Amino acid sequence: MSTEIIHVPDIGGATDVEVIEINVQVGDMIEIDQAIMVLETDKASMEVPASAAGKVISIAVAEGATVNEGDVVLEIEVAGASVAVEAPVAAPVVAAAPVVEVAPVAASVTAELAVAVPDIGGATDVEVIEICVSVGDDVGEGDSIVVLETDKASMDIPAPVAGKVVSISINMGDTVSEGGAILVLATQSAAPVAVEVAPAPVAAVEAIAPVAAPVVTAGGVETVNVPDIGGAEGVEIIEISIAIGDKVEEGDSILVLETDKASMEIPAPKSGTVKSISVNIGDKVSEGDMLLDLEVEGVVVSAPAPVAAPAVSAPTPAASAPVKAAPVVDTAAVLSTPSKNVHAGPSVRMLARELGVELSLVRATGPRGRVTKEDLHAYVKAAVQKAASAPVASSSAVTSGTGIPQIPDVDFSQFGEVEIVKMSKIKKLTAQNMTRNWLNVPHVTQFDKADITELEAFRKGLKGEMEKQGVKLTPLPFLIKAAAQALVENPAFNVSMRADGESYVQKSYVNIGIAVDSPIGLVVPVLRNVDTKSVVQIAKEANVLIKKALDKKLLPADMQGGCFTISSLGAIGGTGFTPIVNCPEVGILGVSKADVEPRWNGKEFEPRTMLPLCLSYDHRAVNGGDAGRFMTYLNSALSDLRRLVL
Ligand code: CAO
Predict the structure, then answer these.
(1) Contacts of 465 (CB under 8 A, 6+ apart)
(2) Which pLDDT score, from 0 to 100, does residue 581 have?
């Protein structure tokens, strides 16, 4: 028995490469060349193969560590004779899946590969409408490097191999034909082999453009079949742009087919009304397959006219029916809302579908108003950023989700000395909740004044006695009690709307929250089952909760389960305000400062203590009649204390 050390092999000069996966454990038996770990740079991932077989006795690196050539990674116990071979062996092998660039190999050789326009079905002078790469870019095999477009089809030209773009021979708007130079790629290969400078590879170009071939049937109804699509078989229908009963004009796109390399629009061969559709999205079709029946306008055509003018495939055999030069319509990003007026290459459309992006929403910056991959990336990036900032930011971010323009930041320092103050968590939450509630709830606020002359006389008479018991008796407990009874009398206020917009929750319990202006912000502790409690009990419990709030000792449970909220600014002042409903509750009572006012009693003015009440409610749940009854009940209960004991 002897031991062997396995080192990081030559990794093409890369340094501080991250270990993203360790595939073995201490005690594992490994074979020569078995992948023991995976390293990854920002451009390549590579497996490190074992340079000897044996049993793993220690692992010198951890996932997430960074390594360089020569670093020790494993120690193994080698069975039998020492297996010597260590060194330059471990040529990292390009990991399968998403590797972007050829991983550096021990004996890697850089070669240059001229990439030319592949067979594009005989089409000539096809316009370059998008160049998807820049000099210096690393491309993977199959990545789109340019998009070509005829008047009927667009097609991606993919890179035949992975490599770095050394030079680009074409410009946007150039026209190219098969064999025309596109660009030069620097590629790496494991051995000094002649790099296959294959003519561009790609299929791309079953692309094709077509005009659906109608076949006359009786009564002016023509069957429209898949036209010549350049020999492509089993091509997927990715969009059906018409419905039964639709009137189409000759040349209107009726559906879109897509291979992995090209998308093509099938235009209507004639004007008419769609009588039936024989295919569905996702169906695979070939030339001659039936697509739909069209009741053609005007004179019935007597012979089938194999139309079709493959844009890119072989020049069409004497195209028959006139084909309106319909723009390439390609795919729809969202099939239910086809983006048939959006111009984009197949790969962009495919990416849009993968990302669930409606292409028509993406601002197009490409030639002739085409949506490019960069446009799509910019759209998604902006959407992600917006979503990410929404939950944490204050009201402005909340509003942005509604499409309301944000209030711009202003540099106030230009007007004088300023300081940026961080908002507390409670303040940020309050801002978000207020904005959410304000934007979601159609608010109505009703105002009234309750005559609390007797209530105040009674309260003041009791105040000293209560104080001896350690209870502070302000108008608030009376208001809580009166509101609880008003809720019982007017159950329309004791509900919560359900998110489905079709139902609401009717509550049988009566819990009331009180807004407290605490040192950390506005908090709303909740008194439970208030309808079953006396004013004194309510006062005691309210005192406790308010103290807890002021001492910042409220627990989440203290602030849950409210049915209705009272926000009293009575001790502060004001004659009225419009409180915002504390969702998911549907009503909130704002209380302003009571004042002595002259009131006409039928014979004379007499001084009465009047308490301004402001009742805001969610007009989705509560109608004006409910609110009027609620307020009237509340008013009468506060004016005549006997009602509170009923
Ligand atoms: N009119 C006249 N005087 C009033 C009054 C009213 N409506 N309400 C209370 N007062 C008096 C009290 O009687 C007390 O005086 P006395 O000691 O002489 O009796 C004094 O004002 C102070 O009362 P208080 O503020 O200590 O107690 P409270 O029960 O009225 O209020 C609380 C408690 C927690 C509701 C209050 O302190 C508070 O934080 N209010 C702010 C709520 C808020 O910020 N709302 C706005 C939210 S946005 O909708």
Answers:
(1) none
(2) 98
The token pair that represents 461 in the structure block: 């008479």
Task: Compute the distance between CA of residue 71 and CA of residue 9 in angstroms, rounded to an integer.
Answer: 8
Structure tokens at 505: 């929750």
Backbone angles phi, psi at 532, to 5 degrees: -95, 0
SS3 450: strand
Nearest CA to ligand 1 atom 22: 571
Contacts of 410 (CB under 8 A, 6+ apart): none
**Residues 559-615: tens digit of each pLDDT:** 999 999 999 999 999 999 999 999 999 999 999 999 999 999 999 999 999 999 999
* Closest C-alpha among 536, 589, 541, 534 to residue 563: 589
Q: Report how far apart, in Å, the C-alpha atoms of 607 and of each of 402, 432, 476, 600, 601 are.
A: 50, 43, 22, 9, 10
Amino acid letter, 165: V
**Is the beta carbon of 238 within 6 A of some atom in ligand 1?**
no
Ligand 1 lined by 515 (C-beta under 6 Å): yes
Residue 342's nearest CA partner among 383, 375, 391 is 375
Q: Which parts of the chain register pLDDT below 70?
A: 1, 42-45, 79-110, 151-152, 189-219, 260-261, 297-341, 346, 367-368, 388-402, 646
Catalytic residues: 619
Is the beta carbon of 571 within 6 A of some atom in ligand 1?
A: yes
CB-based burial of residue 188 (10 Å sphere; 0-12 exposed, 13-18 middle, 19+ buried)?
A: buried
Atom of ligand 1 nearest to the CA of 549: 34
CB 129 within 8 A of CB 365: no
Query: Could you tell me the distance, in angstroms and rounded to a whole number, from the CA of residue 464 to the centre of ligand 1?
Result: 18
Please give the share of the chain, as a percent, with pLDDT higher than 70: 79
Residue 50 near residue 96 (C-beta atoms within 8 A)? no
Residue 144 has a pLDDT of: 84
Provide the H-helix boundaries in 499-568. Answer: 535-550
Helices 453-468 and 475-489 pack at an angle, to 10 degrees, of: 120
